[in-house]
Amino acid sequence: MSRPLSAAQRRLVEGAEIGSGRLRGGTPAQLAALVKRGLAFRPPRPPHDHFLTPAGHRAREEDAAPGPVQAPDTAGVFAARVGGERSAVGSGPARLREVRGAWQGMLELRRMTNPDGATDRPCGWERSHLVQAAALALEAAGHRPAGGGEDGYRVRETPQPEAVAVYEADGDALRACAATLEGAGWQVGEYTEPRTRARYLLASPRRV
């Protein structure tokens, strides 16, 4: 787990505007510290204010939860379920709040960093975190990740640039995953592995 927020950082995160995640106030050093931890970003085009990242929205949701939220953290980046995790991940209402906050933060990140402000296609952060981005889109839409001996989606890296593979044991569930990813701005094709004959999706972030 990452180190806890300082009191000043917590006040900044909690005081961010609802929806947009725009940070209000804060010294340059405090804002820079949040950026370094992956909790905030400063868009390259106006307005040049600081905004919460998906991880920043998650941090605020965790602080608002009635009890501690147990979830893995990877260098401050929101840990979406990719399927097949060995470590325990929080569930229930706390997890739903966490996922909802992360997805809303992702949409805002798209709006602020895509050149035309579009929210219907992935942004640069998602292109550099392909597995996490695809998994977040699936989990936020209500798809169930594989784990605990149960079937569900699994998102995995591939040798192809800007592409991830999505596996699902159930054909209908696999097609539902394809529809979700297409709606989230990904290009998706369905393929069959020659050796195992397993069906899977190959998904890439759409550029236009």
SSE map:
Layout lengths: L6 H8 L13 H9 L3 E2 L9 E2 L1 H11 L28 H21 L10 H5 L1 H11 L13 E4 L6 E4 L3 H13 L2 E7 L6 E7 L3
Antiparallel strand pairs: 1-2, 3-4, 4-6, 5-6
Helix/sheet category? alpha+beta
Sketch the major β-sheet.
Answer: 4 strands, antiparallel
What string gives the helices and strands in order? HHEEHHHHEEHEE
Overall number of structural domains: 1
Q: Which range does the strand content fall in? A: 5-15%
Rg value: 17 Å
Note poorly predicted spans. 64-77
The N- and C-terminal alpha carbons lie at a distance of 37 Å
Mean pLDDT: 83
By oligomeric state, this entry counts as: single chain
> What order do the strands of the largest sheet run in, or round the barrel if closed?
3-4-6-5
Q: Judging from the principal axes of the Cα atoms, what is the shape?
A: globular
Topology, number of strands: 6
Helix content percent band: 25-40%
Helix count equals 7
Region (Disordered): 38-72
